[in-house]
Amino acid sequence: MTGARPALKSRLRLMGIAISFGAVSMLASVPASARGPDGIADIAEKVIESVVNISTSQSVEVKGGKDAMPQLPPGSPFEEFFDDFFKNRRGGLPKGGDKSGEMHPPRKTNSLGSGFIVDAAGVVVTNNHVIADADEINLIMNDGTKIKAELVGVDKKTDIAVLKFKPVKPVTAVKFGDSDKLRLGEWVIAIGNPFSLGGSVTAGIVSARNRDISQGPYDSYIQTDASINRGNSGGPLFNLEGEVVGVNTLIISPTGGSIGLGFAVPSKTVARVVDQLQQFGELRRGWLGVRIQQVTEEIAESLSIKPARGALVAGVDDKGPAKPAGIEPGDVVVKFDGKDVKDPKDLSRVVADTAVGKEVEVVIIRKGNEETRKVTLGRLEDTEKVQQAAAKTKEDPVEKPVTQKALGLDLAALSKDLRTKYKVKESVKGVIITGVDGSSDAAEKRLSAGDVIVEVAQEAVASAADIKKRVDQLKKDGKKSVLLLVSNGEGELRFVALSVQ
Length: 501
What we know:
Mean pLDDT: 82
CATH class of the domain at 285-380: Mainly Beta
Shape: elongated
Strand content: 25-35%
CATH superfamily of the domain at 285-380: PDZ domain
Distance between the termini: 76 Å
Radius of gyration: 31 Å
């Protein structure tokens, strides 16, 4: 046995060598494109002059914090040391100030990001969050030249900003590519200023498209595993043609560094935003004038829609474009201007991207049938409505209402006392919920006391008896769920599907 061991070891060594040579030969036989594109260096060299570092500064009021004089017990041996340190560091405390640091003069803070030139006349694209609240914006070119920039306009909803500057010498501009043509697994290149390391080039693939990560109303991010870190924000994401297909905007990371989850605003969105900001200094988005919600499986079953799809109209603005076109609550939008609508986000994006004043065809499903409506889009106003809180009034004793139970709900007729108790407007009609069984489907769907049931299975109801009658009929018809149109006290509507089993 002992004599056989050296021979066995020898055979294993020879086998290991054979495997190694096999691996080398296999690697040599793999096409270069499968190991990564050879042209990254050429593309980076071609476009890197168009990428700029963005440095901003702003004044912030110092109130305490790490730059404030630390609070020490009177007579502490460190009190004199820190007093001298802070006086030397800041040239003494301001007149009238004390050691608490509450009256220190404003101090300058700096931040860094990235951007890229889209017009050789001096137009730069970046993220809004890179330059937000900046007192001064400077561009640092690839050769180190520093140039002051001015803000043209921003769009907070897509986090895009446009800057302008006066070139001191000819500059390189890049073009937008078609982000809709990107394929999963396609190679992309990110260039930016991560951690102040300007001109950093990273490469990776497109991991996903149309990502909704709840950052805004028009989320449709490109996900990439190309390394994107702090400072890359606002920088370009290139395809292998050297075209900008996205603007690197954010990362998901528990550590603050790249873990291969980077997100870029697609160039199709950016190009339109940039064009409008240059033309108008603001965004002019299309407006349909409806409130929409998700079509769940239960709602789809109640409306006889297979498969579940589209955007359910929960409310129609009386002054919006949808009203005169005949669109009503309960309609499900499945196509807009020739584009399929799979969910509410799809409708929000396509409406916003459509020109104001354009007449479009909107395909809806109403009571199981498809209908086409023509709508002339209005303009979405971005000014937020400020609602004044109503003054609280002393509540009079309320007589206990007569209630009936259905669907795990306590239901009552809308009386004056109940309107006052639950602050329900006179314009709201229906049957009010006064209680909810905590173990019911209604509780899971977040119905609560004070909500008003306006319709059951798309038919108006005026009493609890109406609701029980409709529910009993649906059970007999073999329906699994019932669709309720529910209003809050302010008159805002939503659809809720409850199990009738």
